[in-house]
Structure formats: structure tokens, C-alpha cells
UniProtKB/TrEMBL annotation:
Residues 1-82, 379-427 are annotated as: Disordered. SUPFAM superfamilies: Ribosomal protein L1. This is Ribosomal L1 domain-containing protein. Residues 379-395, 414-427 have a biased composition (Basic residues). Residues 30-55 have a biased composition (Acidic residues). InterPro entries: Ribosomal_uL1-like, Ribosomal_uL1/biogenesis. Residues 56-82, 396-413 have a biased composition (Basic and acidic residues).
Length: 427
């Protein structure tokens, strides 16, 4: 058994060396036995959650994607290869979904609505920097055009007076706009189904569509809007659905629309393509859903720049008052936050330390006995990190099993329907 030497003060004031048995420890702890009133300080590594709260705002500045280092043993992330793989999988998934709906016996009453297709995109991390609520991109092929779409034009009120607001004939100004549009833009009743004023819209309807600029050609603006789709880019968006057509389009047209959306996601997704966890092709109802891209990489590899407002909020929350405390030994100070939390830190490097611990001096007459054991605290921290990793691995396995079961069910349904259709043809 190891022995250590401690200094004991005798009555005469002479220092005498005395051998004391040291308690058995599973893990060595750096410690010093100090003379008389000096207390022992044990330094402890901070946990991940505490580091996030304690870190100064300057250290929380986000790194660029070029500074993200690939961990050893991992394959280098190739954005273009993964993007091309997703496009190839979409070329296989779209004909499969089309066959599934063709073999359904119960036909839909409104196929252009029930059989609309969309991409279901899941991010690893939501966006924290405001870049707008949505981005509009133009698709190369659209199932909507001026011939198969009902268009309603909403114009501002020509007369803003109080008498016009109380006028019973709300369609009076709409008829004036009809004559004005025919004169300025050569637009007649053949180009639209309904024309309203802003006041008439507020009285009779509750939804407002996209905005037109009067100085530009109306027909071109409407045609461009019909061939476009929206990608949500708001704050804290974790999952988004992007519509790209229906089965009135051919497979080649649907594939070109998907390629356009996937290429746009590289720039519009927060953190780039590395942040995309999963992409599925599915109808609006959600069934069947075929995955075309999955990434089981860690979300810690994704770097998203924090917004300025969030930085200010963190600065205010983590603001501390650091001051000396006469009950602490030399070299230690006290840091107090606005929420009342306190921690003992070193004066030189501002690192957190555990104080007081069970190894510090304690007199039998004192009511508060130190109960912090550095060895147990370190073991508990390591155990928590191991449990956290196990839960993450188990969640990934459950998700993979669910996708396999879904694919099996879809394949079985398609086989049954194919067998039924063959039996009907032979009969």
C-alpha cells in the first residue's frame, strides 16, 4: 500500500513528519497537502453541457465549412457524389410510385390533388440564422398552365375615401379595373376567372396569394408562378415538404423537377448538403414513401452560423460577475451569473474547479461537511457520455428497421396487386 507524508503541527510548533495511510483510489487525482489553513483544490474537466453554458461568446463564433476537419477513419464527404446518388435513386423511385397508383383499384376522384408528389427533406440541425421564410425556385416542367388553372386577380382600391369604404356596391371598382387591364395589358375575361379589389377580398375571402407588379406583363408573371415551387427556409425548420408535380407529367419531366430541387438544396439548406439527413419521395398523403437519400453522419459535423440576435441572447445569459471571496484560498475566485448560479474558477485561466471536496480540511465542529468526490464525479460524467452514445445508436437502428419494414410492405402490396391484375387479364 502506498504511503504519503503529511505535515503535522505539534504543540511546540515543530514540524514532524508522520506517515499516513492513503485511501485506495481507482483513478489518480492531482492533489497537494498544504500547510495549516491552506485547502486542497481538485481540478475537474467540465461536461459538455456545462461547457456550452460557460463558454464566452467569443468562443461560440461559428466556423466555416472549410474549417470542418474530417475525423480519422471516416470517409471524406463528397457533396457532388452524394447529390448524384440521390438523383439516381429518384429516377428509380418515381416510376415505382407511378406503378403503385396505376394498380390501385379504387380510383381517386381528384387525382391532381391526391396524387401530387413532394420531397420530404429532414435536416440534422435546424436553421438558426434568419434568411427569410421561403425561397421560390422555378421548375423546368409544370403540370399547371393558363389553360388548366383558375386564376383570380386582386387589385388595389382605386378610391380610398371614407365614402368608398361604406359603398354597398363592392364590385364597382373591380369593373373599373377590368376596363383598365384590357386597355393597358390586353387582358380579358379569357385570361382570368375572377377579378377582385383589396377591400372586396377582405370582406369575402381569407387567403392572399402571390404579388404581381403592375408595370410588368401579367401573363408572363402568372406563367412563371405556376411553374415554381417554394422551399421553406425559416428559422428552426427541421423538416420540409417541397411539391414538384403530379402524374400528369411524364417520368422524365418529374425527374428533371427533382434534379432542380436537389441542386437548389445544396445552396439553400442550412449548413449545405452535409446537413441533409434524409430525403423521401412521396405523394401528399405520405403513403407510399420511398427514400432516395440517407446520411447517418453525426450532427456535430454540421456547422451553422448563429444569428446575431442569438449571439446577443447568449451573451446576456452567460454574463458573469467575477470577484474575490475571502473564504476561498489564494488563486481561486467566484463567478456569479444573473440566474443565481455560482461556480469556483481559477484566477489565471478561468477554468472551473471543484471546491470544497472530501479531500479538503474539515473540522468536526463544522455543520457543513464537503461531500464532493472528484473520482465519483469523473466516473459519472464518463458513464453519461457512454449512455448518450448508446441511445443515439439504438435510435438509428430503430429508424433503419422501420424503413426496412415500410419497403417490405410496399413491395408485398405491389406483388399482390400485380398478381390480381394478371389473374384478371388471363380470365
Amino acid at each position: 500500500m502506498k504511503l504519503r507524508t503529511a505535515r503535522v503541527q505539534t504543540k511546540k510548533g515543530d514540524a514532524v513528519a508522520k506517515k499516513v495511510k492513503a485511501p485506495k483510489r481507482k483513478q489518480p487525482v492531482e492533489e497537494e497537502m498544504k500547510e495549516e489553513d491552506e485547502l486542497q483544490v481538485v481540478e475537474l474537466e467540465e461536461s459538455e453541457e456545462e461547457e456550452e453554458e460557460i463558454e464566452e461568446p467569443k468562443k461560440k463564433q461559428a466556423k466555416t465549412e472549410e474549417e470542418v476537419k474530417v475525423k480519422e477513419g471516416k470517409k471524406e464527404f463528397n457533396e457532388q457524389e452524394r447529390l448524384q446518388d440521390a438523383k439516381e435513386q429518384a429516377r428509380v423511385a418515381l416510376p415505382t410510385i407511378r406503378k403503385y397508383f396505376e394498380n390501385i383499384e379504387d380510383k381517386s376522384l381528384f387525382p391532381e390533388i391526391d396524387q401530387q408528389l413532394q420531397l420530404n427533406v429532414v435536416y440534422k440541425k435546424p436553421n438558426t440564422k434568419s434568411v427569410g421564410a421561403r425561397k421560390v425556385i422555378t421548375l423546368p416542367c409544370s403540370s399547371h398552365n393558363l389553360n388548366n388553372t383558375t386564376i383570380c386577380i386582386i387589385m388595389p382600391d382605386l378610391d380610398q375615401s371614407e365614402a368608398a369604404r361604406k359603398d354597398v356596391d363592392v364590385g364597382k371598382q373591380a369593373r373599373e379595373w377590368q376596363a383598365k387591364l384590357e386597355q393597358d395589358h390586353a387582358i380579358t375575361n379569357k385570361h382570368y376567372s375572377l377579378l377582385l379589389t383589396h377591400r372586396q377580398l377582405k370582406r369575402e375571402y381569407s387567403q392572399v396569394p402571390f404579388i404581381l407588379r403592375y408595370e410588368l406583363p401579367f401573363v408572363n408573371q402568372v406563367s412563371k408562378y405556376l411553374s415554381s415551387t417554394e422551399i421553406p427556409t425559416g428559422n428552426f425548420v427541421h423538416r420540409l415538404c417541397i411539391r414538384f408535380g403530379d402524374f400528369r407529367l411524364s417520368n422524365a419531366d418529374l425527374v428533371s423537377n427533382v434534379d432542380t430541387i436537389l441542386t437548389a438544396l445544396v445552396k439553400l439548406a442550412p449548413g449545405g448538403w452535409r446537413n441533409v439527413r434524409r430525403i423521401d419521395v412521396q405523394p401528399v398523403g405520405g403513403k407510399p414513401s420511398l427514400p432516395i437519400y440517407t446520411d447517418e453522419g453525426s450532427a456535430n459535423d454540421v456547422v451553422i452560423e448563429a444569428s446575431k440576435t442569438l449571439k446577443r441572447r447568449l451573451e446576456k445569459r452567460n454574463a458573469e460577475v467575477i470577484d474575490e471571496c475571502n473564504t476561498l484560498p489564494d488563486g481561486l475566485t467566484l463567478a456569479i451569473r444573473k440566474n443565481g448560479k455560482t461556480r469556483v474558477i481559477k484566477e489565471d485561466d478561468k477554468k472551473r474547479v471543484l471546491y470544497p471536496t472530501i479531500h479538503d480540511e474539515w473540522r468536526s465542529g463544522e455543520t457543513m461537511k464537503p461531500k464532493i468526490n472528484p473520482v465519483k464525479v469523473e466516473a459519472k460524467r464518463k458513464r453519461r457520455t457512454v449512455e448518450k452514445k448508446k441511445r443515439a445508436v439504438a435510435a438509428k437502428r430503430r429508424e433503419a428497421d422501420k424503413t426496412k419494414e415500410k419497403l417490405k410492405k410496399v413491395a408485398e402490396k405491389m406483388k399482390k396487386k400485380a398478381a390480381v391484375s394478371k389473374a384478371k387479364k388471363t380470365a
